[in-house]
User: Fold these one by one.
Assistant:
Number 1:
Amino acid sequence: MGLGRFIAVRALLMIPTVLILLTFVFFVMRIIPGDPILAMVGMKAPPQRIEELRHMAGLDKPPYIQYIEYLWNVLHGDLGRSMIWGRRPVINEIMDRFPATLELTISAFTVSVLIGLLTGSMAALRKGSKTDTAMRLYGLIAWTLFIPWFGMMLQIVFGVWLHWLPIAGRIDPDLAPPRITGLYVLDSILTGRWDSLVSAIRYLILPSITLGVVLSGAYTRLVRNNLVEVFGQDYMTTYRAMGLPPKSLLRKALRNAFIPLITMMGLQFAILLAGAVLTETTFSWPGMGTFLLERIIYVDYTTVQGTIVFFALFVALINFIVDIIYAIIDPRVRY
Amino acid sequence: MVIGMRIIDYLLRLRTGLGYPGKGFIIAGLGILIPLLLMTLLAPLISPYDPTKGSRDILQPPSPAHFFGTNNLGQDLFSRILWGGRVVLTVVLVSTILSATIGVPLGLLSGYLGGKIDRALAMIMDSIYAFPGLILAIALASVLGPSIINAAAAIAVVYIPTYFRMTRGPTLQLKASQYVEAAIATGAPTKRIIFRHILPNLAPTLTVVFTLNTADSILTEAGLSFLGFVVTPPTPDWGFDLKAGQPFLPAGYWWLITFPGIFIILLSLGFGLLGEGLNELLSPKEKTI
């Protein structure tokens, strides 16, 4: 199969996946709870207000009509309108918040892969030694570090006690760069505002380390196991026999050990997003996670549902991209 | 059966000093879990104060009178942690049992019977599996409202695909094995094949999945609780207490967050270590699940 054809087939396969996800979200948000509005408002609200909210969310129609309308709208990129204040389109509200989450996840992802490569290589190079066991333990402990706790510990040490780094927010409010991409680091560079860049990075450090370290545990283990496997291959023995220094051996091995890592990244991405919700709450980071929780409190049902749909579509898209990258790197996958 | 026999086998080896694979991990895991479980079980006996009753001693640092200090309402944090463990364990156990009782039979039947339904189910489960677990749990918990039962239900839904996948995959393999084919050839009824020939062989894998999954669902429970979807004040719960301590962090009240968090991590780590050890003990080859 050529690459073009592979991409086309994968894209077609995305249709049932997306339909399943949308149906699932519909079930979770509307069918299982019986009356989501009542559950979100609680029993205290006057019945009139509840009726009004139900009407706004379109929940007063029969379920099958709700379902068709919902699918139709989502497939047209319409996630409905928010139920509070200006009643803005949900998709616009999401786009305001999404860059913050993207910036955090990219940066945390980089941290986790770097740590994973470092610790995993250390373990594989000294397989069976104390270092190996220590790294294995590191992987396990990193994975169980509860994100809010770890984040707050960093806040106490580096923010409250040492005063090195800020503990909440995304940038110094006076220094926000003009919006181009919404990624502060990138926007600061594009507009050449170096004071903004420094501020954005300073605010980014603790959240990225928090999320990055917790996610690195899975990579440590994966890099280690892949490397050990690659080191056992015949061609590595040949390289060793040829007298290649350990550094270039590791470089050659890492290139091959990287391939299985990429398939993991799709699944890891879901964990990354879930972790981002907790990280954002811990650091008052104005991203999708804090947005979702804020709107749950305001009983903004349409926005909550829209955000969940957005997360689902985003994950499906990332998995699609990961599949294609994998097919480019390893042509065998296409068959 | 298989597990029971293997464990007895390894216990015998332990007595003869031969050791067994995964020994360090299992001992470390049990070393963490047994005291923790005892603590929570015995909470009514050993808790020095009423966990929900405030006092005038607010925000006291750890001292002999209050091992872990007190919070802004003057509640004793040590007592809250003892009692909070019960909430965590209740939610986690209920949800794990729920998702296993749904996911395992579904995966077993789907994998064994095969066909279109199997393919459709596998696709549905894969889609849900790829969805960020905590976000799914938040969505469910938000429309169900905060309560211990609702949180357990939300977490159960998140992990059904895990059990389904972990059962279906090995079932497919076992179904293709020669001895199952032989059983089919001799005319053994499907029920007998599933219960006598397939399920017992899944037991080691499922034990490991169950243990590791518990470690994961502890973190999900803590996350949900931290976000306010499990308990309402004054009920003690580790994740919730962590959240309650957050506003006092800039003022340096470190004990309000340090202790609840450490217990979340210890409980999860205990199950994680035990799972690692059991994986080595019960899997013939060194493979990672």
Note: Chain B is about 75% helix and 0% strand.
Number 2:
Amino acid sequence: MLLRINQEKCQGHNRCHAIAPELVNIDDYGNAHEREDGVVPPGLEVKARLAAANCPEFAIDITE
Amino acid sequence: MSRSEIRQSAEPVTDWATDFDHARSEYNENAPEIWAQLRTECPIAHTDRYGGAWLPVRHADVSQIAYDTEHFTSEDVVVKWVRPESSRPIGGAPPITSDPPFHREARRLILPAFSPEKVAALEPEIRQFCRQLIENIGNVDVVDAADQYAKHIPAAVIAQMLDLPVEDGDKFRDFVHTALESISEDQEVRQLGFQKLDEYLDLRITERSQNLGEDLLSFLLQAKIYDRQLSPEHVRGTVALLLIAGIDTTWSAIGASLLHLATHPKDLARLVAEPELIPTAIEEFLRAYAPVTMARVVAKDVEIGGCPMKQGDWVLLPFPAANRDPQVFENADEVIIDREVNRHAAFGLGIHRCIGSNLARLVMRVAIEEFIAKFPEFAVADSTQVTWSVGQVRGPRRLPVRVIRRA
């Protein structure tokens, strides 16, 4: 599973980081960046889906 | 004028679709019902009041406008009778009143101060302040959870960030009243209020510029955009924004959350038993009781949802209405404190996302944790005594609750 954050859409709401800190880093300006090139380790798939489903800006895409 | 005497628009509303007025007290009192009615009958309402204003209520329309910085300017974000003075792209309180491309520079200056890490450092002081407030309330049966509790917390937090005296909290709340609540008062009254705000800020800024510290105000005095120091107007506008934007908004969010718990004993009991659920519940309170409606001014004629918006028209951006759109949220009018999928827009959408959102969440969490730890059972004492704010920030202003059990 891959998690991708669209930098054009991310506005730094920080919802993904609150839900899945294992998958997302936040920079000094609040913008989210995927860790490990977005590869979702086994066991974190539910968190990845929730991170995407809670983004107010629809900035996160998940590909299986 | 005290807050209990806030003047509202004189003329009663005849029809919310064609003559709405967000500064009538019945608007905030009945907002979810008004939005629901508009959503099915006329999703973009209009009024001739304020020189002409629009009120979209669907998530799709609110987000489309929030994302469209070409047709909509942020030069003024509080709908009122006075027309905005043209101040693009900086506006009176950067970055909230700024447009691209300047907006990005003004925003990036202050974003790092509000990162999750930076605000987390404030938690012990916020908790201590909440505990002290509760201790000061004492062993009484009825507590005003808005007036004796929620309203004091955000002012103390921002005072700390700007290194201003916590004792100035009443002054800050008067400034908030001037900027956000007094939209229907006489222009002379409002001007006097803004004059007091400017005098206060000028005094504090002059003092600080001779004695710089580690606080956010000192930072702004030394900050640069495009290699130039900020103008005195920019510093003053940003400090005014920081002072005003976080106070009645967070106060409203805490108050609305406590009002929910005071009327939903099962939810209260669950949060007392499962405090780890509080962050999820807070997102739901933010969705269902989002306090902030923003506004834009039409910069270029545009049609939204079939409505012809003309240059100079006001447009309200009711994120709280978008948050209850059934097209985006299941059981949108139901408050589900363990709602897992919740992409609410309480902090706005697009480039003007609330800069203080991480701080607001922290303050809400600590305030609610401390209140329910001390008062694990409480209920509204007299629902006729509960009053709501007037204007674009929505939340309870009087909230007397009876303490049923104390810890």
Note: DSSP finds two helices and four strands in chain A.
Number 3:
Amino acid sequence: MSYSKKVIDHYENPRNVGSFDASEKNVGTGLVGAPACGDVMKLQIKVNEAGIIEDVRFKTFGCGSAIASSSFATEMLKGKTLEQAHQIKNMEIVEALDLPPVKIHCSILAEDAIKAAIADWEKKKD
Amino acid sequence: MKNPLIYLDYQATTPCDSRVVDAMLPYFTQSFGNPHSRNHAYGWEAEKAVDTARAQVAAIIGADPREIVFTSGATESNNLALKGVARFNKGQKNHIITCMTEHKCVLDTCRHLQEEGFQITYLPVQTNGLIRLEDLENAITDQTVLVSIMAVNNEVGVIQPLKEIGALCRQRGVLFHTDAAQAVGKIPLNVEEMNIDLLSISGHKLYGPKGIGALYVRRKPRVRLQALIHGGDQERGMRSGTLPTPLCVGLGKACEIAQVEMETEAKRLKNLQTIFYTHVMKELPEVFLNGDLDQRIPGNLNLSFAYVEGEGLMMGIKELCVSSGSACTSASLEPSYVLKALGVGEELAHTSLRLGFGRFTTEKEVIFAAEKIVSAVRKLRDMSPLWELAQAGVDIKSIQWAGH
């Protein structure tokens, strides 16, 4: 199986790799997937007072498509409101990265990671 | 597909040795006769070539040429051995013993025989990949007709105790078949010393052509089996069809070369294996070898690089042609059943790579490969959330992961 140019680009030059301090109040962390399934994504958002995602970080254990999906997701998230971020659908990632059908689960995992990060941030706010 | 690719997947297939190709070529064109044509010189010439090849194949396993049946490959040989023996003995004995780490073509054939009413026992393996002889001994009943245990595993390269298995089978009056596709030409094999009754050979795993293999079928005491392919009664009725003379010649030549060079080649490969293994283990923590190191062919390593997914790793080492136990590319998304049988956890099975060294692998390539893998693993661990958790002292297994 060969990868699309976009997947290769994100794999070779991943955007926003790293971690924020998960205990910080303005940081939301999503950790999804399972090691036994071969995919784990950690996605973190830093939200400012206006409710805008100011910065994003990710770390992923998985295949090239999983890494690319999470890297691409971090680019999509920057500058979005939480409302807008919540609207992101996995198919946008599939289309942007030309993921083949067998790799659609990678994009679903990325969507799950976004939702989990938002939920974590909201939980902290309450 | 021009170089600079480095091929390290010799358990998948091997290139045809140019000496093999040279031996084959005349039999495509000027010496094109049907080896079964008894009435003219073209036929005699082809028959002579096939006879020579048969003797070369027999020699590498210490057999008699009359005990060699040419087939299309090891898959057919395994099908013929298992179905042939089972069906011939149907009504008298109906039990077969095999093991959980066999190649798919043995396991799938056994599943098929189960549907035909045969009982199959799938022996477990120890964490080093080898079966326990006590397990085998306990599994044999008065209904057991055949034991089929592979010589060398295709994923982890471990060598089963063939001599001990053969002795046990002989003592208990049970036939012993071994799938030796990964073993012929790699380790010394002798059907007499090892009491092997049936042995499967593949051409393309030992620098011969694809599309040819053989099944050794013992004559004394005679092993009888029911044919799968019917027709002109070639190969003493066990496998009909005109023999592909060039392919037979190729397999014969490949066996001859392998037999002559086996000892020196095994030493050379052992050295390459050691260079690779020691480099990687020195440079990287948390790398695990799957399968026994000593009871193993020198041309194989199977390593789990914890916290780095195998397919993701392969993408970072594009220059290297290796294979992964992760099977993330396959539709099933299931990791290797062989590693699972060895007790390797799914999370580690997803991080495994199989490296195969062979006749055309150089020391320079092995060093390059080891360095490349080390740097790719480091890079991917830096972006692995599991590595981060492990470094922080979190036990990955203590986390409640949601399966997906």
Note: The helical segments of chain A are 5-12, 64-77, 82-87, 90-97, 104-125.
Number 4:
Amino acid sequence: MNRNQVIKIGLVFAAPLIIYFLIFFIYPIYLLFKYSFTSASGAFSFINFENMIRDPILYDSLINTLYYFIGSVAVQFSAGFIAAVILNSYTGRLKNAFRSILYIPLTISPIVIALMWLIIFNPTYGPVDYMLDMNLNWLGSMNLAMPTIILANAWEYIPFVFLIIYAGLQSVPKQYYEAASIDGMSRFQTFRYITLPSIRPIMIIAFLLNSIGILQGFTLVYVLTNGGPGFSTYILSFYIYKVAFTYFNLNYASALSLLFLVIIGIYVYAILKLSSVEKYLGIKK
Amino acid sequence: MKKLDAFLLILLIIFSFFALFPIYWTVITALKVNSEIFTIPPVFFPTKITFSNFYTPGTTFGEVSQTAFGSFPWLINSTIIALASSLIGTFVIGAPAAYALTRYLKNVWFARLILFMMMIPEAAFIIPFYVIITKLNMINTWWGLILVYISFTAPLSTWLLMGFFSDIPKSVEEAASIDGLSAFSTFYKIALPMVIPGIMVSIILNFINAWNEFIYALVLTYTPFPTGAQTVPLYLTDFIVIEKSFAWGGLAAAGVIVMLPSIILGIYAQKYLVKGWTMGAVKE
Amino acid sequence: MDNGGSEGIMSEVIVENVTKKFGNFVALDNVNLTIKPKEFFVLLGPSGSGKTTLLRLIAGLEDITEGSIYIGGKKVNDVPPKDRNVAMVFQNYALYPHFNVFDNIALTLKVRGYSKDAIKSRVSEIAKILHIEDILNKKPRELSGGQQQRVALARALVREPSVFLLDEPLSNLDAKLRVEARSFLRSLQKEVGVTTVFVTHDQSEAMALATTIAVLDKGIIKQVGDPYELYTKPKDIFTAGFIGSPAMNMIPGKLVKDGSSWRFVSEDFSVQLINTEFENEYDVILGIRPEHITLVKDDGINAKINNVEPMGAVTYLDIQVGSVELTVQYTGLIKLEAGMEIKVKFVEEKMLFYDRKTEKLLNV
């Protein structure tokens, strides 16, 4: 088979994907551009981008998104990492059972998590306030609403980080540890010089996938706070939805969508470049 | 060693408590009678168990009601849409594309393209998808949501199956080509059966993701079966908005019904998940 | 229907000026070979020599960069593998894991439109020859390595291919099985009579199986010949060193004309040659096999024993002659110890001289 034949057959196999990609990825991006540069009267215009600069809710949304993002990444990554290290060090028989238990929240729909949180964090009848012996209006307070959303989101996605890093830890060859113990390394030194370097690419991939998942967040805000109180839990994805389907300003919402895509694009590109994990993901020669 | 294990065991039990408590609370709320739901202090171990939150005679079928049974028409939509988008994403698009990318089009740009498709945040595409589905006259239909859900089922399947296809020895396919099979029968008869575990995981993960999806369903559907394509997460939001203050039992019961299939399927697929996500970067 | 058949079995394979490049890397460089019908032809070379690439080119699994390949007189450059009527056994056997043994063997017949009855009788016939009738219902993973190898052979032979290609099929077997499989393969090939191309890096395997061997190194054919020829008259230093175990001794030196006769002079000793003639004086490397160095009482080259390795039927001696270490093969057991001084002599008619510049054999 020569190269041309190889490519021809490959393209036939990939044809459904390519067709789908053109209609449901390229065309949407074209539409976003088209609407973004259209004014209310239908003319070509930069007005939507000019409006962005003067939009205080957008500023709020961006700052909230940053808050939500950094808080979520910090909580999810550290807790997931710690849980993975703990389970990896544990040598008892229940290892696999714990792995399954700690993974379960990941399978649950965000909408179900939202309803769980409504019931559990209810200031009057909820068990959390009772156990803490406090009476906090978690979702109704300007200061607590966002941390509560971060917590609810973390409950679902800590298992994601946990599962990947745990698998990475399990994949470190035993001989490394045996060699380290013969060399007289302490537990901490072994972790620092053997374990961490071995799982570095896995940690970065976990971090990358996790942070993309976090940026997807929408459901919890929509159901738990609807952006409130005030604008305190407006995040970019929620704001796009609001502009599009409550204020029906599709053009401005499209411009915001483009902004969202650009932010994520830069973020992903930066992580890939800074971390050189591309070859592990098979996206670099 | 023993001491350390005991300490770690305590930590693991604490973690497990946090992981399981919300689920436990939802399940017991679904099984409690109202007098044990709305009481101070909260009841941690219900003394009376009831299934009336799931079904009571007189439940209006197809309306948001106080019992979970009312969600049946939404469940029908969810099942059909999740199943169809999962199967199409896996068999029609994902598997052949993954095969092409590991065997024929070994260009890093294709892999990047798949990664790009997986990273698109749903919120950024609600407008174009809304416009496209409106143009196709498919708003509030099964096909409308199925087509849109393929935007995440297909890339995930492709990504995941690329890892599986690249793990099978190429010589088996070469043997098939010498034995006289065409490229296409080699794919269907030889390569595909060799990645059945990957296919299963792909179907399950896609199903879970489609089953749990919310924002597209919110934008693209507005009535339940039989008149429309609203899925079960929307039943829950309606429930929350309408019945927020007084029907926790029914709400929790509906929540149990929604989370049950995804937990069961998720645990089944668990051991292949990491491989799928990281495309074989972790060998377990 | 029967596109194998007896005329297929008589196929000749001609490789004409074939070059294969992977990017800038030249895997095969202008290779020419003729593989005669019914021959057991072995491609021998170290890893990276291009032997497997050549086999894959004949199978049609890779594209030819330049040149042509003919099978049974027909140019096959653009013929896909399935239409070349070749059969191949892969190093890892490449059995279809989800089919049982019967279906593994039968698939190629099904694809080629044989009737159910014909398939059944062909499969059971070939299963009988390969002694695998009892395992036809098993899946490949339930089989031992030796059984898998037989199934792979059966799958390849069931449709009577024109050419039978084997890519190191014995390398995954343990030592004892490998020797058994070798003789089995040899008699099987005689029985079926199919033109066979066999790739290996193991020179003893090549010697045991081949009617003709082609030695490859770095994409170039070094020598083609029968095992006897390759062993006794290797045409260059590479082949000389590659064939034979333990390897041929190599001693750098000079050929000097000494009156009317010639003399081999090395740094540490010199040997008078009586029956050998040369055109010029050369810088050479003397090649001498371990069994062609004999121990003598007097009038020999002085040597010191470094190591003695008694094998039973033979004894290997590592001896030091000045700055070079040589291996000597002594037939039978001998009571010698490391450190002892001995004298040795080279069998003159077995001495091979290679030009140090061209690395080619100078003996006529």
Note: The interface with chain C takes residues 1-3 of chain A (CB under 8 Å).
